Amino acid sequence: xxxxxxxxxxxxxxxxxxxxxxxxxxxxxxxxxxxxxxxxxxxxxxxxxxxxxxxxxxxxxxxxxxxxxxxxxxxxxxxxxxxxxxxxxxxxxxxxxxxxxxxxxxxxxxxxxxxxxxxxxxxxxxxxxxxxxxxxxxxxxxxxxxxxxxxxxxxxxxxxxxxxxxxxxxxxxxxxxxxxxxxxxxxxxxxxxxxxxxxxxxxxxxxxxxxxxxxxxxxxxxxxxxxxxxxxxxxxxxxxxxxxxxxxxxxxxxxxxxxxxxxxxxxxxxxxxxxxxxxxxxxxxxxxxxxxxxxxxx
Length: 298
What we know:
Elements: H1 2-18, E1 37-39, H2 42-50, E2 57-58, H3 61-64, E3 75-76, H4 85-90, E4 95-99, H5 103-114, E5 119-122, H6 127-140, H7 144-165, E6 172-179, E7 182-185, H8 191-198, E8 202-203, H9 204-207, H10 210-213, H11 217-223, E9 227-232, H12 237-249, H13 252-255, H14 258-261, E10 265-267, H15 270-273, H16 281-294
Parallel strand pairs: 1-2, 1-4, 2-3, 4-5, 6-8, 6-9, 9-10
Antiparallel strand pairs: 6-7
């Protein structure tokens, strides 16, 4: 009888041991519920709060870009590309959340982990990666109910949109990233590019990789996409769009493009396509779906 009970206890314990959480580096995060959390990326700070967590330190973008309503005792510990390790260690964190895409943060994680601080690094370029991160977050905060409340309905909404476009003609698109100093074509290496691909679009920059290296008006004219989407970089959106208008906008060849002539050139809102949309991923997909299909009367 004792051996049977012991075996049952082992079987109950084993699944828990096998369910250790991992981050985007495939590094184990550990299951201890953190009480003092520092986040080096505003988007992830927002997601952590949405998962029921609290924070003792954040980078300045949590306020300047995400406009998070933080309590007065939350300390700003530098910027995303220059986190202040001395300030972070002074907060005595038991978890530091950071980006696996930012070299300065990857380096910071190595230093912090060497000092015995638990770190969790994430890469979120797709809604699936966001869902995986939120699963880890809500397990750490012991709030799986928040995951169930947000993630499955959002994924179902997106899956429904993707399923709907399969029966429709896939439009050709060009995704541009505009700067005050120039413009570049983008493929599926960013949020908007992934979403456009998921929605069945033929992104001419993905089809013709040379456009990613050298974008010319002649190459755009040759492809003549159905729609043009513009994602603006930098804090001065007007300057970036003015630069684009100066270089191409007044050119008769640009004006003759089908997308331009039909009014299908769209500037994407930063909160949905430049910053991580977090809980608004479904809204981002729906925004593109409306422009691609409903606005065109498809």
